[in-house]
């Protein structure tokens, strides 16, 4: 889950005062959308003690621009202090792959209201944009996400490491290590695909160890495999 902060400086006086004391908490770190579901829900809670927040949500295909085939209800709403509301996410039925998972991204932008008495002051307002992975999961896929993770294989050619995912599910790494070195720059492998990363100088070893992030956002069991070469 990536968090981007946009700073908006409203110039109207001489004092700069932060306007946040809480914030909107999102109920999950990833969303699994089974294709046979009419919709899935995502809970949002405003942890602020006093201020309402404005919440805007949408789905994109990964480039940050192209909207994905999902409808968010409500797309824009006010969430009062200490209140909870769920986003309802519904697939439009537009074509997506049927033999493997598809990855899209849910964006949640939250904006705090201005505090009373802040008129005529300089106010530093933080706009939070949270981006969550949304996995569209067709019915009837072979295997499970855990099996895809456990079945990963790895090949080294020179200083390039290639991860190979023969399964139908995304494998997102919690940890990936070779010879005691963490390889944080390789974050996931798409289903029925490969992913490559350049190994740092001096990294050696013949055994990879890794954990994947599960549907619930925690780490899977640890796996290891001999490193193929050539």
From TrEMBL:
It comes from Siccibacter turicensis. Signal peptide: none annotated. Keywords: Chaperone, Fimbrium biogenesis, Periplasm, Signal. PROSITE patterns: PILI_CHAPERONE. One of its GO terms (cellular component) is outer membrane-bounded periplasmic space. The keyword Signal applies. This is Molecular chaperone. Residues 23-141 form the Pili assembly chaperone N-terminal domain. Belongs to the periplasmic pilus chaperone family. One of its GO terms (biological process) is cell wall organization. Gene3D superfamilies: Immunoglobulins (2.60.40.10). It is found in: Periplasm. Residues 165-219 form the Pili assembly chaperone C-terminal domain. Pfam families: PapD_C, PapD_N. The keyword Glycoprotein does not apply. InterPro entries: Ig-like_fold, PapD-like_sf, Periplasmic_pilus_chap, Pili_assmbl_chap_C_dom_sf, Pili_assmbl_chaperone_bac, Pili_assmbl_chaperone_C, Pili_assmbl_chaperone_CS, Pili_assmbl_chaperone_N.
